[in-house]
Design a protein that fits this description.
The protein has 9 helices and 12 strands. By secondary structure, it is of the alpha/beta class.
Length: about 300
Amino acid sequence: MSDVFLSYAREDLSHAERLARALKAAGWSVWWDRSIPAGKTFDEVIEAKLEAARCVVVLWSRAAVASDWVREEASEGKRRGILVPVLIESEVKVPLGFRRIQAADLADWDGSDTDSSFRQLVRDIGSVRTGESRPVLRIVPAPPGARLLFLVEALVIEDDTHLVLGADPVARETHEEPGGLLEAARASIQPVPGTLVVGGERPVRIHAIVHDLDEQPSWREEWVASALGAIIREVGARELRSISLPILGGVHGSLAPDRFAELLRDALAEASVECLDEVWLTVLPDVAAELARRLRALGFEVQERAEE
């Protein structure tokens, strides 16, 4: 399954290739290569890819307007409510049935991923793909041991199956240990990687179990992905509006900020919660700019704060 089905006229192949490359760099999977596998017909392949896509991006040009194939693909996207139109030529007269849908204007786009029109397109694709708006991501550079000077309804703490790594205060609002939570957890069944240990009132303490200290390395990407999904579901179940979140797998592991951004995007898309307004990302100062760049490329609204 592809995130994006790219519809275009064959005369606009170079435009399609450039946009597909940029969207892939932004983290979306894109189907745009019209080569047909042996034993398949063009109709069969197009129909299967179109049905599987989560978003249909149509590139409107004079050639596309005259193409029956592009019109049919655009109609299917419109019918399913997943159409995102793009203008790649100036003064194109979009077909009558599609004029009420606001189109992104990339007629003068130079391929830059920082272009405001392209970034808006990425946000539009993200909104269509998830079916709802995304929370604002606020990046706070915070060295280990820093006291975080903001209020949230839940604190996420990177932890391990023995609940010993959670003593690191990077992701905390205060240095106070939720002792009752840890004692109860240690007295019960040992948590497994990819799950959560949750307790406390506002702020709720969410220990994300992404390490097993008996393993080398102690963390795995699939554990981080599983924990992120569980966190977002927990947020939805408790109707939380704001959380503090470190780069899971990056506090005591080596998960790259770019990859964490993609895992967070996937978790938010799959869990589909409406209550969450803000995610405060507490990160080391030297990766804050890199993380912000990647999240913006993925279509998030990102706000950066000065170092705490």
